[in-house]
Amino acid sequence: MKTIKSKQEFEEVFSRGKRLNDSLLRIRVAPCDEGTPGRVAFVAAKRIGNAVFRNRCKRVLREAARMSSLPQDGYDVILFSTRRTHDSSPEQVSGSLRKLLGRGGA
Questions:
Q1: pTM
Q2: Is residue 2 in a domain?
Q3: Taking CA atoms, which of 1, 19, 53, 69 is between 20 and 30 Å from 63?
C-alpha cells in the first residue's frame, strides 16, 4: 500500500481535494495524475485520545482501507479518524468509507 508521507504531499491533497464527513470518519479525496498509482494516509489527531486510543483508530482505518481496495489508481485519499472510529468494527468503517468515496466520485 503506497502512503502519503511528506508535509508537501499532504498539502497537495488538501489544496486539490474534496472533504467528506461521516460520523465514523472524515476523508479528503484528490485526483492525481493519470497513470499514477493512488496513495493513502491514516491520521488520528492527538485531541481524540492517548497513543493507545489513536493507534487502535489507525488500525481500524487501515483494515477498512484494505477491505475497500484502497488506494485506487488516480486518487489520493487521506483518512481521518473520529472518536467513534475507536469503538467501530472495520466492517462498519469500510461501509462508511465506500459511501463517502462514492459521494466523492472515486
A1: 0.92
A2: no
A3: 19
